[in-house]
Amino acid sequence: MDNQPLKIAKALRQVSMWVHPEGLVTGSIFVTVGEDDGSHEDPSYVLNDTSPFLVLQRKKPDELRFYNRASIVRVEYEGKKPTDLKYITLPCIAHLMDGSVIDGDIIEVLPNDRSRLYDYLNQVQERFVRLYTAEDQICMINKSYIIQVTSNLNSHRAKNKK
Questions:
Q1: By the 8 A CB rule, do 58 and 27 touch?
Q2: 20 within some domain
Q3: Which one has a higher pLDDT value, 161 or 47?
């Protein structure tokens, strides 16, 4: 029997992951490859999946590790900021339990009546918050490790949008 039709095409996506209490772990997570166009799934979908564990492929040492999503503090990876006008930009600063302070932009499609920072942070279906920390850098932060988030309308990014 041929099992190929049952196999889901996956690719590796390089990430830097901070795990409690281990600290920084580097490796690659498995993302789904689109059948039609070969595009890769965004790591945010992997992180916000409802299953308790995700798989990380390490190079040194060469091994697979299974991490509990609840113990992942944050994950950083390369990605482009969306530029379409349908996206709302919310500049903010996240203060984490490990003392990290992450300055970035939440850039998401949000309904007009639920487009405040408060509304985005309280979306119950998402475990991780996505912050664009640079033009090509994304930081996914586990909400359970956030102490506070403040709006940052004085950031150079917010001023450049005006």
A1: yes
A2: yes
A3: 47
Q: Tell me the C-alpha to C-alpha distance, in Å, between residue 101 and each of 81, 94, 104, 143.
A: 20, 6, 10, 14
Q: Which domain holds residue 108?
A: 78-161
**Terminal CA-CA length for the chain:** 60
Chain segment 62-79, per-residue pLDDT in tens: 999 999 999 999 999 999
Query: For the chain, how big is the Rg over CA atoms in Å?
Result: 17
Cα(101)–Cα(106) distance, rounded to whole angstroms? 15
Q: How many domains does the chain have?
A: 2
